[in-house]
Structure formats: C-alpha cells, structure tokens
Amino acid sequence: MGFGGGGGGSITNHVHDLTPLQGGPLDFNNTTVGGMSAGDITFSDGAALQTLTYPAVPAGETLTAAALSTAPSWLAAPGATPTWTTLADVTVSGVAGPLTSGVFAAHDVLAIYIFAALSAADGQGIIFNADSAANQYCFRDLRNGVMFTTSNYPCIQFGFGATTNWMNSAWTITQRDATEKIVNGFSSEQTGTGSTNIPSQALVSGMYRDAVNPITQVGCTSSTGGLVNFQIGSHLIVLGSA
Fold this sequence. Notes:
Helix content is 0%, strand content 37%. It is mostly beta strands.
C-alpha cells in the first residue's frame, strides 16, 4: 500500500518482507485482522487475495482442487458407502452333509452365493427360514434360453434334471416390511469336463410369499425343498447390508 505526505517525499509501497521499515511479515498468530468470518480461507486469483467462505452448515465437506479449476473449493461429502456383513460362510467338510446358513440377523439387502453339488441326483433348490411349505414359492426361469413358470412350490428350484453336477449360483434379495420377498438369481451347472461340455444356465425370478417375517435363514435343498446332503466342498455364503 502506498503512502503520500509532506516532508520526505512519497513512501514506498508496504511489501511486508524482512526489509527494515517494510512492516515485517504479517503476524497470523491471532493478531492480524481482515474482512473475514470464522473458518474462512484466503487464496489468490493471481491478481488479489480472495476469500473462500467457510460452509454455513458444515456437513463433512473437503477442500479440493477441482479438475480444470483455478481456485480451491469445498467439495460436498460423498454419500455413505454401502457396507456388507458376512452373515454365513459355510462349507461341507469331512463327510457329505446339509448346507444351511443357520439363523442370522435381518438385513435390508441380501447377497447369496452357492457353489454346491448334491450327493444324490436331483435338482438343486433354495428355501428361506426353513420354510418348505408347498405353496410358499413361485418362480419363472429362463433355462438355456427356454422360459418355464412354476407355481405353488416348496422351494425355488434352479437345478433341473436329476444330477449330482456342481453348480454355481448368485442371488440378490431386497427386503421390505410387510411384503413378499422378490428373489433374483443366476446359476451355471457343470455338464462335464470336456471342451464341448458347455455349462447349462438358468436365470431365475422368484417370490417367497411370507409377507410377515424377514428372511433370516437360507437353506440349500433338493427339488422338493428338503435339506438333503451335499458333497464335500459345497459352499454357501450369505452377505447382508442394512
């Protein structure tokens, strides 16, 4: 800042460096004041100092240098990242046996992964809450490109034909209070080990008709909904997100 006056002529601009009589460095230790509010930040636009106002209602914003920007800015806090909890991780080991999750706490969203093979030839299915009542399930499946529908069934069946083939399936369920449960799944079935033994596949959309209780248990079954034995190495994983 320039000064003018009588006597010794004009005074040079105040530069606030270490040169004697230039004001010295600005003291930012609770001494220097400016036209700013609590939390404000200063920056330069290349010509003069500017103020970045502190958020009026802080909500986790972060100071950022946005792409192609020339000045800092506040970036809104990202939304919460969904977290998954392992509700069940069960492997049949030692001898053939049933494959079931046991009871777990209710969650809004479930992700289920099954890699399994039946001990006795049949079609694989899935049930919930140990419920294999004959009218609790209905489903539609696109089986190797051909559509089938099944009503009033004791499970959601996704393995078709009597086999002991290994199958890999993945399922998602979003639960809402006081409504039936919509179940979406995809499965692949090994048909052999040769280069021409293309796996079978099924895309399944099903419904579990219990509109009162949330799903808190998953069971792997035969086509009749029974908790039968699965081969050693069969594996069930259930994840949940609130």
